[in-house]
Amino acid sequence: MKQTIAEGRISHDASVVVPKEVKTAIEEAAIWQGGAVFTKPLAGGLNNENWLVRDEQNTPYFLKVPGVGTGFIDRSAGDIGAQRAADLGIGAKVYEFNPKSGVEITQFLDGYDTCTTTSLRTSELGLQVMSIYRTLHGGELFEHTNTLFDQIDQHLCQVQEHNIDLPIWVIDLVEEYKDVKERFMASGLQIVPCHNDPMPGNFMVKDKDMKVIDFEFCGNNESSCELGLFLTEMFYDDEDAMPLLEEYLGTVTAQSLSRVQASRVIGDIKWGLWGVINSVVRNAQFDYWKYGIWKLMRACTYKNRLDWHQVKSNI
Hints:
Elements: E1 4-7, E2 10-13, H1 20-28, E3 37-41, E4 48-54, E5 60-66, H2 75-88, E6 94-97, E7 104-107, E8 113-114, H3 123-137, H4 148-161, H5 168-187, E9 191-194, E10 203-206, E11 209-212, E12 219-222, H6 223-233, H7 238-249, H8 254-281, H9 288-305, H10 308-314
Parallel strand pairs: 2-3
Antiparallel strand pairs: 1-2, 3-4, 4-5, 5-7, 6-7, 8-10, 9-12, 10-11
């Protein structure tokens, strides 16, 4: 049996070290004021400290504490997205949000399984994601816009700010991104409210019910960017992706397919740059540089498999 120790109102397993910022978040949370709680860390989460907290009634809650070096994330916008998803029935209920600290307390999705790349490659779960996207995208626009192009431009400024020396092939890839961005802007963006972060762990499933969590990067975005990000994150090839695109779009045209294909490339550019930047601004065991370079290399690989000139012409 594990030994439990108590530090004031907060108890935890003796083997667990509760960081100061997590203790502060628990102590300041209105929902637990005056009551004893038990907490333990949860695996996953590259931008946050994620903890399970149980109150005196043994009710479980999900506590999210912003990680070091993530000040560029608009936490208030993320809270709006999480509230929207909860209202639409596709997200966890939000109990409390501190706009000053960015700490968020939500429903703990007890009994739900965290999705993986492998599980989201199945037709059943892939189609469920498309259903979630249709629901989210069909709603009222957010007050804030956070297109994939906005995100990449922000990252390029951060690269300059931190004097990050990018490999020459990445610089060439960035030039391709600039050309694609111009083409999207010329043809017009199809703006919808988007989640923008299809990491497998952000999808939770229980029986036939799927929820999407972590709305830190949400905002109005080009719809094909949401689709492209998901398909590249789950390693869908173009053939296996077609049933999902048909489910979402109805009819897949040459233009809609090209926009998704181009979005897959620039999606990996975005997350590749994000990884490279985090390797500089965060002190973590996770190898952000390796993650970022791998994403950028995948963008190159996929681009080179396409008739890239034709794809850009169709945008």
